[in-house]
Amino acid sequence: MSGAPTLNDLYERGEFNWADWVAYRIGTGHESLDVEYRIFCDESPGGHLYTYREYLESCLPQRREDKQTYHTITFGRNILIYRRDVIDQNKKLRDELKGIEADLRFGGIRYWAPSGRGAMSFLRDQTHGIKLLLAGNRVGKSSTNLVDMILSLIPTDPAWPIHSEYGVPHRNFDEPMRIGLCTYTTSLHVSRLWPELKALLPLRELVTYSGRGKKRDKISWERNPALPLAYSSSLVEFMTYKQAHEVFESRDWHQARWDEQGMNHLFIGANERTSTHGLPVQHAFSLTGHVVEGRPDTGAGSWINKLEEGDGTFGHSVSTHHMNVFDPPDWVLPEKSKYQKFMQWVVEPTIRQDMKVLREAEARIWGGWHQGSGLVYDEFSVPMHVIEGFKVPNNWSFYRGIDHAERGATVCLFVAMSPDSEMYLIDEFYKKGSYVEENVPRIVEQSGNVLVKTGRKYHDPRTSRVWDVYEERMSGRYYHWTRMDPRSFETSDRSSTRTIGKLYRLSGLHVTPAPAHQSPTRIPWCKKWLQIDYTQKHPYNVGPRGLPLDGRPKFYVFRHCRNFIREITSRGWKRENVRDPDATQPDQPEKKNDDTQNAWEYLVMSNPLYHHASQTVRLGGTEHYLEEDDDDTTVGKAVKGRRGNRGAARRKRVASTGY
Q1: What does the alpha-carbon distance between residue 439 and residue 509 come to, in Å, rounded to a whole number?
Q2: Which of these, 227, 201, 192, 38, lies nearest to 109 by C-alpha position?
Q3: CA gap 616, 654 in Å, rounded
Q4: How far apart are CA 297 and CA 299, in angstroms?
Q5: Is the distance from CB of 35 to CB of 328 less than 8 angstroms?
């Protein structure tokens, strides 16, 4: 196989092959490949610096796996790999290795090294009241949160390698701290968090809880489990998400540490107490942002996800940090395990175009949010579909879609179709409680065009009101058509004898009714536009390492279209409890957060296409329609357009454009 393997190559291989996987890993150019480690082995007893790339290409990973032949000690960014028979024959080496292992038992935090840029930024962040660390399983997110907690709990030495060599800032210890460590169940504390915490804490803090010596204390897991630290006098309380809100509210904590996706009401209770101490960091989360079965409050659109948008933060500033499956080294997450995860969540579903699994991969592999928690458009991915705006070429094809509302928000979406037949949402008009005659001038202006009087007037027989009739002169940008909600189009205006659609036309915006499909019919068509081709690179967005993301959408949203992004990432189905993402969805979406979505659905169902400039016929750069029954209610003469007299006579519509 020449060059770096592709996803198809990995799929066709069908089984783990070290050489192919290493070639693929190196081909990604991930930043973890450049991290340096000092490796001591039979050939280099004094130690030799290897980049992780060089380590993968060497025989050292195979030696680490061969535990019968080789003895391995890993601490920080130091790896010792010696043949067991060499150790048996060399008393000096044997004693040195025993001394290192004994030293590590006095507190592993001294030599702890962060994995990846996300872990480091999380540890360095001491300014945000709430900080989130998103990562997949087994990449070290919980360890990172525990280390961050310990650095706040106890005094540390600036000379420790974690500070002096690995770049984690030293913190001043001012007073004993009380911190709540929260996870799903007590069994997770016992089996996972407590053993890791015990391995990290210095022996002088654990003392009788270390499991060594004649006097040994045990944590009472049945009733108020807590760990008092001897040297610093700090306290860790072990909490679970099954406990009542009142229990969390009664605890006098300086900080709360949340393992995985906690409960909102417990967060509110804990915040009542942490806020009284006023520390810069009061809540730290380490979690995988996937949808937890039976928990509709998890994944994208969850209460934790909304913290990023400033919703429910109680005045705290919020920061988000990400770790992905390639960040940790081989001895934290073995390369074979990375391969298996990558095959399960990326390679195989990419070949099958299994969008459900690929959405979950955002959380499992890349440390993002799983867009699958009961959302109508759970295929929508902010990292993939949202891009920075740019000046759109005028030779693209432009369209508009309107969802009119008398009491709610009137929305107009502006869409451009590229020569590659990709759809771009380039702008949005969003206004609540406005009238037709207010909407039209703003929409036309936002389109880059102008309204001109036709010289004709409209007389309403009910109110005896006389209006000037306008038309849109497309002097800035040409729009092929503007579709509108068919129900609103035919609805009579309360203050006149005309329909809403006719009023838009008389005001200068030539709207036509969109196809009359119900939501259950429209939504599948729109979902097709959200599909991502993971065999291609993203043309705009890059990952943390500066390389293009894997995947090319057919639909892009300019980042300033905030209302569209807000609604598509929060609109759900009519269901009280979203428990199983695979369950059959109900017939109707919720009647909220749908204004921009309806306008987009009208656009999609009207089938916007890219038209080459030579296929477009523009009649004087202006739309100039009056309906058949407008003639008997208009008086006066037409104005002149850019190409002569518009006249009262109707022009025939051009077949290719409908105008």
Answers
A1: 10
A2: 201
A3: 10
A4: 7
A5: no
* Nearest of 248, 246, 262 to residue 302 by alpha carbon: 262
Strands 235-240 and 130-134: unpaired
* C-alpha to C-alpha distance for 478 and 395, rounded to whole angstroms: 9
Phi and psi for 184 in degrees, rounded to 5?
Answer: -65, -55
Question: Is residue 368 a contact partner of residue 358, using CB atoms and an 8 Å limit?
Answer: no
- Coil, helix or strand at residue 256: strand
Find where tokens 């296409």 sit: 609
* pLDDT tens readout for residues 124-173: 999 999 999 999 999 999 999 999 999 999 999 999 999 999 999 999 99
DSSP 8-state class, residue 171: -
> Distance between CA 336 and CA 352 in Å, rounded?
22
pLDDT tens, residue by residue, 38-78: 999 999 988 999 999 999 999 999 999 999 999 999 999 99
CB–CB of 589/527 below 8 Å?
A: no
Give the rounded distance of the alpha carbon of 75 from its chain centre: 33
Helical segments of 483-622, H only = 486-490, 500-506, 519-529, 562-568, 595-605
| Rounded CA separation 201/204 (Å) | 8
* Cβ 586 vs Cβ 421: under 8 Å: no
- Rounded CA separation 140/146 (Å): 10
Identity of the residue numbered 14? G
How many Å apart are CA 521 and CA 536, to the nearest integer? Answer: 29
87-130 residue pLDDT tens: 999 999 999 999 999 888 888 999 999 999 999 999 999 999 99
Q: For residue 420, count CB atoms less than 10 angstroms from its CB and return exposed for 0-12, middle for 13-18, buried for 19 or more.
A: exposed
Q: Where do the CATH 3.40.50.300 domains begin and end in the chain?
A: 108-322
Provide the CATH topology of domain 108-322: Rossmann fold (3.40.50)
Question: Who contacts 24 (Cβ-Cβ below 8 Å, separation ≥6)?
Answer: 4, 5, 9, 10
Tell me the mean pLDDT in the region 367-388.
Answer: 83
Q: For residues 231 and 202, is the Cβ–Cβ distance under 8 A?
A: yes
What is the average per-residue pLDDT within 186-194?
96
Which pLDDT tens digit goes with each residue over 595-623? 999 999 999 999 999 987 645 544 434 43
275: left (phi over 0), alpha (psi -120 to 50) or beta: alpha
Record the pTM: 0.64
CA distances from 245 to 63, 220, 268, 271, 358 (A): 51, 21, 8, 11, 35
Residues 6+ apart with CB under 8 A from 607: none
Please tell me whether residue 622 adopts helix, strand or coil conformation. strand
DSSP string, 173-218: --S--EEEEEES-HHHIIIIIHHHHHHHS-HHHHGGGGS-SS----
* pLDDT of 645 strictly over 60: no
